[in-house]
Amino acid sequence: MSQGRRPLIAGNWKMNGGLDEVDSLAGDLAGRMAALDGPPAFELALCPPFPLLPMIAARIEESGIALGAQDCHGAEKGAHTGDTSANLLAEVGCAYVIVGHSERRADHKETDDQVRRKAEAAQAAGLCAVVCVGETEAERDAGRAVAVVVGQVAGSVPEGSTSRNLVVAYEPVWAIGTGKTATPQDAQDMHAAIRAALGERFGAEAAAGIRILYGGSMKPDNAAGLLALADVDGGLIGGASLKADDFWAIAEAVR
Ligand code: 13P
C-alpha cells in the first residue's frame, strides 16, 4: 500500500455473534489496542449486526477502533420496515457502513443502482461507505472479471466520492468463505483496474487517496502477501474476524 493511505482492517461479522461472545471479542481487541506502544500502522473497524452496534460502540469507546454497520437504506427515513437509516447508524457511533456486499446482492437482489443510493445516503449522513464489488467464478472463468468489477464500480460508487467518504472493497465472490483467495497477481491487477476506473472519474490524485480493500478468505497466513501489494489498502475480513487472535494477526501483518 502507499504511504498516504492508512490501511483499514475491517471485520465483517455478518450474521454471527451472541451477546457474550461479541462482548469478549470486542473487549479483547480494545485491550490489545490499549497495550500498543504507539499509534498502530493500521486502522481497525468492527462491523457487527445492527442490534449489537450500541453495545460494541460502548465496548470500544476511546480504543481507537472504529464502528461500522453492514448495510443501510438508501432513503433518509420513512416507511421501510426492517431497514435502518444511515443517519441512525451515525447517531449510534458508526463511522463506516458496508454497502453492496455480494451476499446482499445475491440474497436481496440488490442492484448497482440501489447500492449507489445506499452509498449516497451513507455519505450524506457523514459516514464512509464501504462499497463492495466482486465477480463470480463463472464471470472470472469467462474472462470477464475486470469488466464486471469495473462495471460495478461505475454503477455503485456515487458521484462526488472522496477518500474520506468512500472505501472500495474487492471481494471475489468465489473467495468468500471458501478458503480460496485471489493470487497476489490477480488481486493487484484488479485493485489497479479499480483505481484506474476511480481515476478516470474523480481524477488520479483523488483516486490515489481512496482505499481499496481485499476481502475473501483473508487469514493470518495469507494476509501479509496480500497487504503488501501496491494497491491493496487493507482487508474486509469475514470468518477470521470472529477470532481475536486471527483478526489481530491480520492487522499486525500490515507493514
Ligand atoms: P471471509 O473472510 O469469511 O471469506 O468473508 C469475506 C467477506 O465477505 C467480508 O465481507
Helices, strands, pairings?
Elements: E1 8-12, H1 19-34, E2 43-47, H2 53-59, E3 66-69, H3 86-91, E4 96-99, H4 102-107, H5 112-124, E5 128-133, H6 137-141, H7 145-156, E6 166-170, H8 184-202, H9 204-209, E7 211-215, H10 220-227, E8 234-237, H11 244-252
Parallel strand pairs: 1-2, 1-8, 2-3, 3-4, 4-5, 5-6, 6-7, 7-8
Helix pairs in contact: 5-7, 7-8, 10-11
The protein binds 1,3-dihydroxyacetonephosphate.
1,3-dihydroxyacetonephosphate (13P) binds at residues 12, 101, 171, 176-177, 215-218, 236-240.
Features:
binds 1,3-dihydroxyacetonephosphate, alpha/beta, 8 strands, 255 residues, eight-stranded parallel barrel, 42% helix, globular, single chain, TIM Barrel
Any overview of this molecule?
With 255 residues, this protein is of the alpha/beta class. The chain has a single domain, classed as TIM Barrel (Alpha-Beta Barrel). The protein contains 11 helices and 8 strands. The chain has helices at residues 19-34, 53-59, 86-91, 102-107, 112-124, 137-141, 145-156, 184-202, 204-209, 220-227, 244-252; strands at 8-12, 43-47, 66-69, 96-99, 128-133, 166-170, 211-215, 234-237. Strands 1-2-3-4-5-6-7-8 form an 8-stranded parallel beta barrel, surrounded by 6 helices. α1 links the parallel β1 (8-12) and β2 (43-47). α5 crosses α7 (145-156) and α10 (220-227) runs parallel beside α11. The longest helix is centred in the C-terminal third of the chain and has 19 residues, at 184-202. The chain is globular and about 45 Å long. The mean pLDDT is 96. 1,3-dihydroxyacetonephosphate binds at residues 12, 101, 171, 176-177, 215-218, 236-240. 1,3-dihydroxyacetonephosphate binds next to β8.
